[in-house]
Amino acid sequence: MTATPTTKERIVLAYSGGLDTSVAIGWIAEATGAEVIAVAVDVGQGGESLETVRQRALDCGAVEAYVADARDEFAEQYCMPTLKANGLYMDAYPLVSAISRPVIVRHLVAAARQFGASTVSHGCTGKGNDQVRFEVGIQTLGPDLKCIAPVRDLALTRDKAIDYAERNNLPIATTKKNPFSIDQNVWGRAVETGFLEDIWNGPTKDVYDYTDDPAFPPAPDVVTITFDQGVPTALDGRSLSPLQIIEELNRRAGVQGIGRIDIVEDRLVGIKSREIYEAPGAMALMAAHRELENITLEREQARFKKTVDQRWTELVYDGQWFSPLKKNLDAFIDESQKYVSGDIRMELHGGRATVQGRRSDTSLYDFNLATYDTGDAFDQSSARGFIDIFGLSSKVATERDQRVQGLESLDDVAPLSRQD
Ligand code: ARG
Fold it and tell me: InterPro entries annotated for this entry (predicted)?
């Protein structure tokens, strides 16, 4: 009897090079009998070279390692749409982790196709947003692919990971104990857990890495940011790529302590969680972009876009990057950026990015309409008739209320003190 050669099932794993995903390679292989292919995607998280990460994956038992420098892709196709959408979840969080998941997902699915894998794996726990973002993304781009998360599905705890790495002599440090869970990329940095879980505790110095203390800033730094259709194209007149612009502003706004965020946030899974973020470049760019929109978007367009921006942001936070509605809103947002071009001059200093000047060939700001000087172009006599008609429906309703209920008392409106 001849044994029929069986091809093993293959699983692609989102690999960071850290302890947990290094252990996950062998852990998944032992639990499932499958071959593991490590996928490392550089979205500007810094740290080790892709080559080092690739070698470690192989040394930890991966049969193949797929590494990709996705920094430009991430900056252009994920950070720039977020900027155009003024994407701040709960008016504060610039979606740092939320936008990195879809780019990693695209590479995971590409790697699964390339290596004939049936399953995709990631290192997320069962309590956060990131598992949702990975798996909803994978389901959308590869409906035939299965998902497995060793921390959630195969009981891979931190203690077991340390024990496993030591027993198997994995080439990864198990001693360096970082109390925080950190996720970082070129758009920003997210820090959670440890003593931050007591929401009365303030963040300590060691929480921060992208920013210096805004209380002791260097001299003010004035930067001019040029935008073309909502996308920054130059700093101080130097043409740069989106990635270069984010990186330079991370440095320049970072030393000024700009973009530190401390919030209790509503996760999709129903938990409220304490998060510290640092996003110096992103926050400076958003402040500049919003001000450029203020002068280039027509009033109703601007008001409506705020609603669209918020919905877009919630969809992206909730892991719906590849959803039909998100794509529809992208189309609206892109179209709205047609005239969002020009220069914003801002001062970076002591934790604040303050706009000081704006200039645009497609501006709607009309000095002759706005000026209080003599010779303005605005016909003030039109205002009276406008106000009469604009207030008419409320006036009619008030007259009805008085007829039915009598006069509304204004007794609570009393001056605190009289001068005379
Ligand atoms: N709460 C943020 C989000 O859901 C950040 C998550 C960061 N992940 C981490 N492992 N620290 O987008």
Answer: Arginosuc_syn_C, Arginosuc_syn_N, Arginosuc_synth, Arginosuc_synth_CS, Arginosuc_synth_type_1_subfam, AS_cat/multimer_dom_body, Rossmann-like_a/b/a_fold
Which of ligand 1's atoms lies nearest the C-alpha of 95? 12
Please indicate, yes or no, whether residues 354 and 229 belong to a single structural domain of this protein: yes
Beta pairing partners, 228: 231
Catalytic one of 10, 20, 183, 352: 20
- Cβ atoms of residues 104 and 112 within 8 Å: no
Question: Looking at residues 167-178, what average pLDDT do you find?
Answer: 85
84: buried, middle or exposed (CB in 10 Å: 19+, 13-18, 0-12)?
A: buried
Q: What pTM value is reported for the model?
A: 0.95
Q: How far is the CA of 417 from the centre of ligand 1 (A)?
A: 52
Provide the number of structural domains found in the chain. Answer: 2
What pLDDT, in 10s, does the model give residues 299-314?
999 999 999 999 999 9
34, 136: one domain: yes
In a domain, 2, yes or no: no
CATH number of residue 95's parent domain: 3.40.50.620
CATH number for the domain that contains residue 363: 3.90.1260.10
Is 101 in the active site? yes
Distance CA 304, CA 302 (A): 5
Q: Give the span between the Cα atoms of 48 and 42, in whole angstroms.
A: 10
Does residue 259 surpass a pLDDT of 70?
A: yes
Which atom belonging to ligand 1 lies closest to the Cα atom of 129? 4
State the amino acid at position 377 in one-letter form.
A
My answer on whether 192 and 269 are in the same domain is yes
Residue 190 dihedral angles phi and psi, to the nearest 5°: -120, 135
Which position has the token pair 């998944």?
28
Residue 226 CA to ligand 1 centre (angstroms): 31
